Amino acid sequence: MNNDVVVIGAGPAGMAAAIQASSLGLKALVLDEQPAPGGQRFRAIEQRYRRLRAAGKGLPASEQKGLDLIRRFRESDTRFVDQASVWDISPGGRQISYLHHGRSFTIPANAVVAAPGAYERPVPLEGWHLPGVMSAGAAQTMLKMSGHPVKGRIVLLGCGPLLLLTARQLSNAGANVVGLLQTTGPADFLRATPYLPAALRSATLLKQGLQLLTQTPLVPKVFSLTQASIIGADHVEGVNYRSRGGSGFIECDAVLLHFGVIPNTQLSRLAGVAHDWNEQQECWQPVVDAWQETSAENLMVAGDGGGILGDEAAEMSGRLSILRIAHRLGRISDQSLSKLAAPLQRGLKRLAAARALIDTIFHTPETMLIPSGDTVVCRCEEVTAAEIAAANASGASGLRHLKVQTRVGMGPCRAQMCSMAAMAMITPGIRCGQRPPPPATVRAPIRPLTIGQLAEADVEI
Predict the structure, then answer these.
(1) pLDDT tens-digit profile of 275-331?
(2) Claim to verify: residue 163 and residue 193 sit in the same structural domain
(3) ∠ CA 238-244-248, rounded to 5°
(4) pTM (global) more than 0.90
(5) 405: domain range?
(6) Helix (H) and strand (E) counts for the chain?
(7) Is the residue at 196 inside a domain?
(8) Distance between CA 288 and CA 275 in Å, rounded?
(9) Which residues contact 197 (CB under 8 A, 6 or more apart)?
(10) Residues 371-389: pLDDT tens digits?
(11) Helix (H) or strand (E) holding 346
(12) One-character DSSP codes across 33-72
């Protein structure tokens, strides 16, 4: 089937791109590995809406917006392939391979909008490999999909809006939250004040932030957290912590970690496009222009996969990418392009200014960002911080050299869970302007694939 554009991901950016494409008469194919559209932000929201409606309740306004987006996406003239896991994208994005119901398909792509979203920043702590430790996002997904929270006594640890939101959602669902340990403290708010004037232009975003800060559950809270270790033999038994206000221990059965989110760059790195280091957000991200276009023509990266700005900005970037593609195909004039794009580009600038405030407030302290001693950094290969430090001392100055000496990053997760921490260890001056080494190399397949599936692949020329 000949498509004008292939959209990878059906989160806010991908859905907005597909809706925009449909409105301009473009043939769009959307691939997503989940059984329903929504992405992580609006995962299982249709299912939740039905549960709430049966109970005589409704969705919060912020989630109702997501439900409306999904409805418009489903009503659009878009071909949506769910449970489709993209495992390869050729250099420049001209060919895409994906798994669907056990079969592999390879299709050509005239234009691509990659909207892979983001994932939670992994911060290795002592004991984070124990049963009972999971990310706050995983706990939130469990709650969204099943309607049931994590069982037992729960401690949430880290920083970021999602940490506060998950704490509130779990408490509202009847979970036993016994502690909320945050790295954020008064000093972080003070340091962020220079960004407040620009952030005031995004009143809705600030209002949502204030609600998160003021509506946290009535549980024991610790601020200005500087160190933490998860204690237990065969499972989680508690958390030892140290903050600027003192130290302590909280008994618990589960620990939910969250230290913000970073772009998922597997697809963009596999496609070979240029990336740059974002000093404010401390992560690698693809270099995109005002139209979300990468260094490869007609390969766009929209949403948080191109830089963390949130779901409202994701929708704007998805629409912008399609406008550029439609203009190149002659579907809209120069005048229409400028008219339609101007408010979206202004909106992105406004939200980017507000994001600087958020990034400064929710900043992971260096004492937690760089693991040490016997802390397991690479859980796949069980490589400790001490082993990485020893390899670095013997001359391993990049992730490739670390792989050779320690096998860090060579497990099933493809270095997604350990590369950021390993990079911080070998670049201690990263917060003083020292540029980190290039990110880990990504090679296909980025999803598990059998030899049989590869041999029987359906290849469309």
Answers:
(1) 999 988 999 999 999 999 999 999 999 999 999 999 999 999 999 999 999 999 999
(2) yes
(3) 25
(4) yes
(5) 371-427
(6) 16, 23
(7) yes
(8) 9
(9) none
(10) 999 999 999 999 999 999 9
(11) helix 334-361
(12) SSSSS-TTTTTTHHHHHHHHHHTT----HHHHHHHHHHHH
